[in-house]
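Example for tutorial group B:
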């Protein structure tokens, strides 16, 4: 019988007394392949905006073009930096407020992204707007260099940084996991704006 001794974390069969096979997991300092769910440490959700925008996680806003996604991220930036209400009576929790970092993938930031944030009521001294970045991998690398007081990270729109139509589900999960890891480490909210194309049967009227 093949023996896989000295391979960390591998299952192997060994000969037990009376020719009875048994299975054991090789003891190793490496993380085992399988861990019981009882070892998972539960983590409660921390909310920036209760029941809407979590801290330490990724939120995706998806909708067709011209549906107000860029205005929404500008409003959120105002909420995080200047305690502006997201909706009547709906505020960012005090311990989640701070600086905001926006990755602008559309038109010139001085003509659109920055004026939108200012018009929404943001404290512009607490807003960083980054452009001239062309891939989600580069966005992730850039976030790693961000100041520690950033509590909101906005990406608008996703398609400016990733060819999502041709990206495999596996690759998408890998990138989202990296963003979620950053959100947890920085105790920040990551909010992504995503354009969605509404498909319709041939000859059907446009959906708005």
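The residue assignment follows.
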């Amino acid at each position: 019988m093949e023996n896989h001794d000295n391979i960390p974390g591998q299952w192997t069969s060994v000969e037990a007394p009376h020719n009875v096979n048994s299975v054991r997991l090789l003891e190793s300092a490496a993380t085992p392949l399988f861990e019981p769910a009882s070892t998972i440490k539960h983590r409660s959700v921390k909310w920036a905006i209760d029941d809407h925008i979590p801290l330490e996680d990724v939120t995706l806003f998806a909708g067709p073009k011209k549906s107000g996604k860029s205005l929404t991220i500008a409003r959120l930036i105002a909420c995080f930096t200047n305690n502006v209400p997201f909706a009547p009576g709906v505020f960012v929790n005090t311990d989640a407020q701070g600086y905001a970092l926006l990755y602008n993938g559309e038109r010139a930031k001085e003509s659109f992204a920055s004026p939108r944030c200012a018009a929404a009521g943001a404290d512009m001294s607490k807003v960083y707007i980054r452009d001239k970045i062309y891939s989600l991998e580069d966005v992730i690398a850039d976030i790693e260099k961000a100041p520690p007081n950033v509590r909101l990270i906005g990406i608008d729109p996703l398609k400016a940084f990733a060819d999502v139509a041709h990206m495999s589900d596996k690759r998408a999960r890998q990138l989202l996991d990296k963003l979620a890891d950053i959100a947890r480490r920085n105790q920040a909210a990551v909010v992504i704006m995503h354009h969605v194309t509404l498909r319709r049967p041939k000859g059907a009227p446009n959906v708005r």
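The chain has four helices and nine strands. Compare this with the pattern of hydrophobic and polar residues in the output above.
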